[in-house]
Amino acid sequence: MEPVWFTFLNGSDIEQLELTDIEILDAVEEGLRAQGLGETVIEPRVHLVPDPAFKGHFNVLRGYIAPLALAGVKIVGDYVDNYKQGLPSEMALLNLFNPRSGMPVAVLDATAITEMRTGALTALGARHLARPDAKVLGHIGARATSYWNVRLLDRIFDLDEIRVHSRRPESREAFAERLERELGKPVIVTEDWKSCVERADIVVEASRLESPQPLLKTEWIAPGSLVVPYGVHSAVEFDLTDIMDKIVMDDWGQAHAGPFGALRRHVDSGKLNKDNLHGELGEIVVGKKPGRESAQETNLFWHRGLSLSDIALGAAMLRKAEERGLGQKLRFS
Question: Is CB count within 10 Å lower at the N or C end of the chain?
Answer without folding.
Answer: N
